Amino acid sequence: MNEPDHYRVLGVSPQAPKAEIQAAYRRRLRETHPDKGGDEAEFHLVQGAWETLSHPGRRREYDLLRFGRRAARRYGKAAAKPAHRKVRGWNVAPTPPPAAQGFPAEGALVAVPWHARLRLARPVYRPSSWIAGAASAILAAVWVFCGLGYLGQALASDSWLFLALAIPVTLAIAMIVFVQTSRAFRRRPETSPNAPTGRLVLAFLVAAAVVWLAGLSTPWGWALGVYVLTGAALAWTVKRLRYTLALRRSVGGALRQFNAFGPAGTRPKADRATGKLLREVLSNLPAARLFVALPAEPDTRVPHAIVCGDRIALLCAPVGRDNADVDSVNLPEAVRALDEALPDATVQGWVLWPTLPETARAGETAAVHDVAVSQAAADIGLWLAAGGAVYDLPVLQALRMRLATVPPQPSGDRAPVVRA
Fold first, then answer.
1. Dihedral-angle region of residue 119 (phi above 0 means left; psi in -120 to 50 means alpha; beta otherwise)
2. What is residue 289's three-state secondary structure?
3. 290-345, pLDDT tens digit by residue?
């Protein structure tokens, strides 16, 4: 976090109440005011510290980002969740559809818009909690059925040795599975759980050895082998289900209400041509979502990024509005950085020129394109539409977490919203 330590700037402790912070702010304001011989840079730091610490929401977000778990203990466990990090969301209202025009039945040539070539389906979530729950339930049912079947055949056997070995083996496997599953319920699903490859390979070898030793025609050998194999995978399916449900809770609600996201305190802003482009894409791709001021690297941000499925389109002007904005020069580095940070997504960049230059920009790569802003909607929209009408929740969650690391913007920012 590259934001200055606001508490040290004001000379108070992180546990100080608002009244003490206000008194320290007034004292430091008198000490650093340029009219009284103070340093102008330090005066601005004092102003920024007061804007953050005087607002309860911004102070909580600042504490969570700077102090992490220590601040989470103060504000409660719910405050540490990504949904509580104040990722600002908006609704960018779509442009109303044009009025129907009557064309003669014969002899008329009508230009078909790019979105008329799409087969728009109802957006669905990915991964699906229903699929994850069904997989976990089916695996648990098979595991219980095979365990009971193995015990039933052991009880029906005339061999006391077989019975004496079957009960401890079944109980030991059940205890191991219960311990692993209980751990899956206790741990918070922050990241996507990886498949237990080593455990599954070991369980497969044990199951194959049991089936081979018991004989291919012996039912209890197959029951015990499947019992071991499903037990090794059961805890992972439970982790996968919890991770899917957590994604639905943290991202699903925001997707139903908003189609644009940005750091705390900001508003979506763009020139008229870019605003028209954003509205056209968001209106015709139901699963498309807009991210504003998206951090690409520690010192750069992408002005506009549109996500649809597992595809991310980074949009920028030839020259950025300020030094932190990605432009035509450093867009390839931004595409490369986000592509490495999100390996499950496909990232490409577009430089939106008012008038397309006659020669290609030097250093242009296959993932970076030069396009005239007035003609860009078709190229960007068709490329995004190939990602499907789905919400890739892990990708959206990762992008929202990147926005949560951006320091809050001053409340006095009254930048214009996206215009059509």
1. beta
2. strand
3. 999 899 988 889 999 999 989 999 999 888 887 888 988 889 999 999 999 998 89
Helix (H) or strand (E) holding 223: helix 219-247
Tokens of residue 8, six digits: 């040290």
Q: DSSP characters for 313-372?
A: EEEE-SS-SSTTB--TTTHHHHHHHHHHH-TTSEEEEEEEESS--SSPPTT--TTEEEEE
Rounded Cα gap, residues 262 and 271, in angstroms: 17
The terminus-to-terminus CA distance of the chain in angstroms comes to 35
Indicate whether this model's pTM tops 0.85.
Answer: no
For residue 43, the SS3 value is helix
Q: How many helices (H) and strands (E) does the chain have?
A: 14, 9
CA distance 101 to 111: 13
Mean pLDDT across 164-174: 88
Nearest alpha-carbon partner for 275 in 416, 64, 99: 416
For 6-80, give the CATH class. Answer: mainly alpha
Return the domain boundaries, the chain. Answer: 6-80, 129-253, 259-404
| Tokens coding 332 | 């390839």
Query: In angstroms, how far is CA 360 from the centroid of its own chain?
Result: 34
Q: Are 322 and 331 in contact (CB under 8 A)?
A: no
Determine contact, residues 315/303, Cβ cutoff 8 Å.
yes
